[in-house]
Sequence to fold (138 residues):
Amino acid sequence: MARFFGRYEHSLDAKGRLILPSKFRSAFEHGGYLSQFNERCLALWTPDDFEKQMAIMEESQQLSTEQRNLGRIWASGSQEVEVDKQGRMAIPGYLREYALLTGDVLVHGAIDRVELWDPQEWSAKVAPTEHQLTDGTI
Fold:
């Protein structure tokens, strides 16, 4: 079971590719799955963790029309990806557009997945919660 942590600053190349931090590459040597995720980031899953997430989405579709629509959106917004020998991963245009990725990209370990964030989106949505660390409330 792969676990991911750490924060890395990278950028997209002219072809929309991202160099995956070397620390994460071995988990994706047989490919991975990139999907739209919460708060407008992208999630990169190992094949095993993607299967787990698919099972969760499949089960939740039985609950309501809204859950079925979320499952549809998530499945249609997911893409199998390969990491080449240079550690580059192509990010399809529709996923770059969803996550507002145009240049700089923050690559974060998020325990069971790797997340890709536009730096401004990260600051607006996640950084305000950092006060819980500085206040000692977690």
Observations:
- The radius of gyration is 15 Å.
- The helical segments are 22-25, 47-60, 65-76, 93-98, 119-125, 131-135.
